[in-house]
TrEMBL record, chains A, B:
Coiled coil: none
Domain D-isomer specific 2-hydroxyacid dehydrogenase catalytic: 8-300
Magnesium is among the record's keywords: no
Taxonomic superkingdom: Bacteria
Native source species: Sporosarcina siberiensis
Protein name: D-2-hydroxyacid dehydrogenase
InterPro entries for this protein: D-isomer_2_OHA_DH_cat_dom, D-isomer_DH_NAD-bd, NAD(P)-bd_dom_sf
Signal peptide: none
Matches recorded under CDD domains: 2-Hacid_dh_1
Gene3D superfamilies to which the protein is assigned, alphabetical: NAD(P)-binding Rossmann-like Domain (3.40.50.720)
Stretches assigned to the D-isomer specific 2-hydroxyacid dehydrogenase NAD-binding domain: 102-276
Length: 314, 314
């Protein structure tokens, strides 16, 4: 059995894998290098590297482990037709993303942007907009593993959490959970509207102009899911007309965000260049998931963790 | 009985007081205006406004409520000699200060300074230093009400907390508590060293050059207590020689921080101009404490909350 990595891991990590799986042959290519994909049964890669032409070459491929969370840009139907198993690293973004969301919210409430810029100009200037997170309300779109972790941390700060999902099924660390169609009723109550929704047929374009109008004038809107959740023009208008207070965006309709995009110029918009999931511990965690699944694969090929339903797309 | 406020409160807050305490006369001066202090029994003010000359004029004064936390610059001996009761607002800084500490730590770990500055220059530039709070260790000097609140929040992020106080008495939300003299043993373990110590004879100059040398090279040192905890030269040298990774300072030996102070120019030092306690909810909370104490005062003059021991200075 042969496994190909198309990204680099440390020598310690290689040794650990090779000692644990002595009957498996591992090949480690540089990032993006798919040399020898023809000969492998298992490919460990990032979602963006898998396309039709790669699949065509990879005749023996049985399992793709993507070290990404999103799979929406992968050729899912072809993968399904070829009967290739696809797993991702759902769950490993939980900690860095939840910490990023809390970092951004707290930074805004505790006036860090103004503190940082006063330092640059050596000004002893006390901000006049400092307030607290405690006692506020957050609405979390997509209270799955990442959303619930955000909810758990917000609750520790005394924030009321409202989850919003497709089914309305109660989710962890949410004071209550609502369904998508009740969003308009709850948006006016939220100080923070935070999306961590994946891109699926049901979430694309989910937020309309009316949703932004329904938010508080002081609301902080945060998109840490996918950039196709709404038409960016709606948000730009809401920010320009002060229909909402602030946006913090980690994802965009087009990434990298084009230089001419107006979001760059809006004072009340933080541009986080799709980095909320980054962490020095990323590969380490991805390998933990991979090792567990490789054990299961060798045993039986079934019951892998983080299995993607190729028709639902998550 | 007459009460003088030397700072402004809202009309709603005035009405609330006057309705609740119908036998008390309230006078509200502008901030810093001590007109009529001669005639009052109770003064509600900030610590910095109370000096010997004020005390001299305030012949009838029996109780000073300071809406500050620190009392170290007040003429405590004169207040004691005059047998004047002194109370402060210990506890009301807990939430904003703990949120500020977490904001700064998370901002650094999640690369917010670089995200903010890339926005300014419209650069889609992914930071390479993002890491997580989870799994790290924090040492908290002064695990009282503020320190314990910081500890509670850090623990929610999966951080190990070590409290350090005079007595070594177990304190809330600390995985363990050590005494000051054992500091040198624990400093090398801490990723975050956070002081919220007040200024007292025992804390002045508590941290020496050796303490900074004992910290990790990557340590983040945060002073949110008082600026006389150490000689600033020791910290400046530690930062310049990369003996520690970063400092975040809310307090300084001299405030406002003089323009010529080298701390302004160090890249690895955040200057927070003594604002970590600021909050839009500040006066509201101070009044809750004042109202409780005014009830007690009218009843019996004793058992006031947040009573300052004039000889210990806190």
């Amino acid at each position: 059995m042969k496994v190909l990595f198309t990204f680099e891991i440390t020598n310690d990590q290689k040794m650990r894998l090779e000692n644990k799986f002595r009957d498996v042959t591992f090949q480690y290519n540089k990032k993006g290098d798919t040399t020898d994909v023809e000969s492998v049964e298992i490919l460990v890669t990032y979602s963006s590297e898998v396309d039709s032409s790669l699949l065509e070459r990879a005749k023996k491929l049985k399992w793709i482990m993507t070290a990404s969370a999103g799979v929406e840009k992968m050729p899912l139907l072809e993968i399904a037709e070829r009967n290739i198993t696809l797993t991702n690293v759902r769950g490993i973004h939980k900690t860095p993303m939840a910490e990023s969301v809390l970092a951004h919210i707290l930074a805004l409430r505790r006036s860090l942007p103004s503190i940082y810029s006063s330092k640059e100009s050596k000004e002893w200037s006390r901000p006049d907009d400092s307030t607290e997170l405690m006692g506020s309300t957050a609405l979390i779109l997509g209270p799955g593993s990442i959303g619930s972790e955000i909810g758990r941390l917000l609750q520790a700060f005394g924030v009321k959490t409202i989850g919003c999902n497709r089914s309305g099924r109660i989710s962890e660390s949410m004071d209550k959970t609502i369904v998508f169609r009740d969003l308009m009723l709850e948006l006016p109550k939220a100080d923070y509207v935070i999306s961590v929704l994946p891109s699926t047929p049901e979430t694309r374009g989910l937020l309309t102009r009316e949703h932004f109008s329904a938010m508080k004038e002081t609301a902080v809107f945060m998109n840490f899911g996918r950039g196709d959740l709404f038409n960016e023009t709606f948000l730009i208008n809401a920010l320009k007309n002060n229909e909402i207070g602030q946006a913090v965006l980690d994802v965009f309709e087009v990434e990298p965000l084009p230089l001419e995009n107006e979001l760059w110029t809006l004072e009340n918009c933080v541009i986080s260049p799709h980095v909320s999931g980054l962490s020095s511990k990323y590969v380490e965690r991805a390998l933990i998931i991979f090792e567990k699944n490789l054990e299961l694969w060798i045993e039986s090929n079934v019951n892998l963790e983080n299995l993607i339903n190729l028709f639902d797309g998550y």
